[in-house]
């Protein structure tokens, strides 16, 4: 069975802890790891059915820093865009490359890729989840504040892919989740149930300021996700903008996170995203380190990064 990285919920707490600890070690020893070229001779295919800056560059650079190589397939420049099935694409690519990273629309496309590929498949965002982002986010939270066990994050905006992966991570890292989203934008029940069944408290709080109280971390995302543009959405989301009032309502040492790209002036004000509590560029950097650890988990199980 290939070592797919599909969703946080497919891993237990110890496995995630090991991937994150390796990510931190790989970050600390980046020159030594690069000199080892542990993925020399390995090829990663990167499929993009949606745009990307961070994911595209961090996987590409990360793979090269590990000694491997990459190739990029966009829907428009491959037969995926002309209707070749995901199953056939998976079987063909598996004959050429050592791993497949895919950013796509419906989650079922990811699952179909994983079912038919005979090499590891990595989820680089679907309509439903974004697990690589959340590993980088937990890594960033820990770097700034230590253990996140018993802490609370408050989510603002749309209750979709990024929030879903946070909900899967919550019980595995031991944090609780407040959710401040407009009606009609609640997360899917199964992700809330996943967090609760693992022991995390999850509260849906429609009052934006109330949802920040006691929060150690405030997180938001674009109000309109890729491929989900809908008329009138912005008015619906306006009460859930993360601004200085929201940050004041949270704990004094609360951090602010955003997966980026941001629509400044919509889901977050300049004062917050550029302010002292914001760690958005650390999050972006940690995509690189977290994904290098994921690539090693998938392609070189048992690898131990140098400890420095
Ligand atoms: N956060 C994130 O996944 O960014 P990109 O869409 O630029 O890859
Ligand atoms: N929720 C956003 C995340 C972008 C990284 C989207 O799906 O567009």
Automatic annotation (TrEMBL):
Carbamoyl phosphate binds at residues 52-55, 79, 103, 130-133, 259-260, 287. It holds the Pfam family OTCace_N. Its EC number is 2.1.3.3. Keywords: Cytoplasm, Transferase. Residues 149-297 form the Aspartate/ornithine carbamoyltransferase Asp/Orn-binding domain. Pathway: Amino-acid biosynthesis; L-arginine biosynthesis; L-arginine from L-ornithine and carbamoyl phosphate: step 1/3. It is found in: Cytoplasm. SUPFAM superfamilies: Aspartate/ornithine carbamoyltransferase. Residues 3-143 form the Aspartate/ornithine carbamoyltransferase carbamoyl-P binding domain. Transmembrane segments: none annotated. Its main location: cytoplasm. L-ornithine binds at residues 161, 221, 225-226. The keyword Transferase applies. It catalyses: carbamoyl phosphate + L-ornithine = L-citrulline + phosphate + H(+). GO terms for molecular function: ornithine carbamoyltransferase activity. InterPro entries: Asp/Orn_carbamoyltranf_P-bd, Asp/Orn_carbamoylTrfase, Asp/Orn_carbamoylTrfase_sf, Asp_carbamoyltransf_Asp/Orn-bd, Orn/put_carbamltrans, OTCase_ArgI. Reversibly catalyzes the transfer of the carbamoyl group from carbamoyl phosphate (CP) to the N(epsilon) atom of ornithine (ORN) to produce L-citrulline. Belongs to the aspartate/ornithine carbamoyltransferase superfamily. OTCase family. This is Ornithine carbamoyltransferase.
């Amino acid at each position: 069975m290939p070592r797919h990285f599909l969703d946080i919920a497919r891993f237990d707490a110890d496995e995630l802890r090991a991937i994150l600890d390796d990510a931190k070690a790989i970050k600390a020893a980046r020159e030594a790891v690069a000199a080892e070229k542990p993925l020399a001779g390995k090829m990663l295919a990167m499929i993009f059915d949606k745009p990307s800056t961070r994911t595209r560059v961090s996987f590409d650079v990360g793979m090269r820093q590990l000694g491997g190589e990459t190739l990029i397939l966009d829907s428009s420049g491959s037969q995926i865009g002309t209707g070749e099935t995901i199953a056939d694409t998976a079987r063909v690519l598996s004959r050429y490359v050592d791993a497949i990273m895919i950013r796509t629309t419906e989650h079922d496309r990811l699952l179909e890729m994983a079912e038919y590929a005979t090499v590891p498949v990595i989820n680089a965002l679907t309509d439903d989840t974004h697990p690589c982002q959340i590993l980088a986010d937990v890594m960033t939270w820990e770097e700034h504040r230590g253990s996140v066990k018993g802490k609370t994050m408050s989510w603002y905006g749309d209750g979709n892919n990024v929030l879903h992966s946070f909900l899967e991570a919550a019980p595995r890292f031991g944090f609780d989740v407040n959710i401040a989203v407009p009606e009609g934008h609640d997360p899917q029940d199964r992700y809330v149930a996943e967090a609760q069944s693992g022991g995390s408290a999850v509260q849906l709080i429609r009052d934006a300021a109330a949802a920040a109280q006691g929060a150690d971390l405030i997180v938001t995302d674009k109000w309109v996700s890729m491929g989900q543009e809908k008329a009138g959405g912005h008015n619906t989301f306006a009460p859930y903008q993360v601004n200085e009032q929201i940050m004041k309502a949270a704990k004094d040492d609360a951090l602010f996170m955003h997966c980026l790209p941001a629509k400044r002036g919509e889901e977050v004000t300049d004062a917050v995203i550029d302010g002292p509590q914001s760690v958005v560029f650390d999050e972006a950097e940690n995509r690189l380190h977290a994904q290098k650890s994921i690539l090693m988990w998938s392609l070189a199980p048992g690898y131990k990064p140098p400890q420095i």
